[in-house]
Amino acid sequence: MKDENKTGCDDKNCPFHGSLKIRGRMLTGSITSAKMRKTASFSLERREKVRKYQRYEKRFTSLKAHNPDCISAKEGDKVTVSECRPLSKTKKFVIIKKL
């Protein structure tokens, strides 16, 4: 996974230029907020079946992910995130790629 992004960064929690190891689930979603420093909030869409009406409905889950300087995803971007060790109380994912 090293050297996927060409621009360097000095973030120690970057999976490409730092020492953060990624493991576990890889998810694709869209950024809903990137106002925090080095943190972005992204949402996942899933379809849940409503048994009473025999139809599906959209449901969303919102999670926080680390946003490294070399990726710097903005609001509205489609991203791929990967699970990592807990970086804070709510951050357990890191953005690895913009789509």
For this entry, give a set of tags:
99 residues, mainly beta, OB fold (Dihydrolipoamide Acetyltransferase, E2P), five-stranded mixed β-barrel, 52% strand, elongated
Which helices and strands appear, and what pairs or packs with what?
Layout: E1 22-33, E2 39-50, E3 55-66, E4 78-84, E5 91-98
Parallel strand pairs: 3-5
Antiparallel strand pairs: 1-2, 1-4, 2-3, 4-5
What portion of residues belong to β-strands? Answer: over 45%
Kindly report the spatial arrangement of strands forming the biggest sheet.
Answer: 1-2-3-5-4
Overall mean pLDDT stands at 91
Q: Give the class-level CATH name.
A: Mainly Beta
Give the ordered list of helices and strands: EEEEE
Find the structural class using helix and strand composition: mainly beta
First-last Cα distance:
16 Å
Number of helices in the DSSP assignment: 0
CATH topology: OB fold (Dihydrolipoamide Acetyltransferase, E2P)
Residues in helices, as a percent range:
under 10%
How many strands? 5
Segments where pLDDT lies below 50 for 5+ residues? none
Provide a descriptive summary of the structure in words.
The protein is mostly beta strands and 99 residues long. The protein has one domain (22-98): OB fold (Dihydrolipoamide Acetyltransferase, E2P) (Beta Barrel). 0% of the residues lie in helices and 52% in strands. It is built from no helices and 5 strands. It has strands at 22-33, 39-50, 55-66, 78-84, 91-98. A 5-stranded mixed β-barrel has the order 1-2-3-5-4. It starts with 21 loop residues before the first strand and ends with a strand. The model has no long low-confidence stretch (mean pLDDT 91).
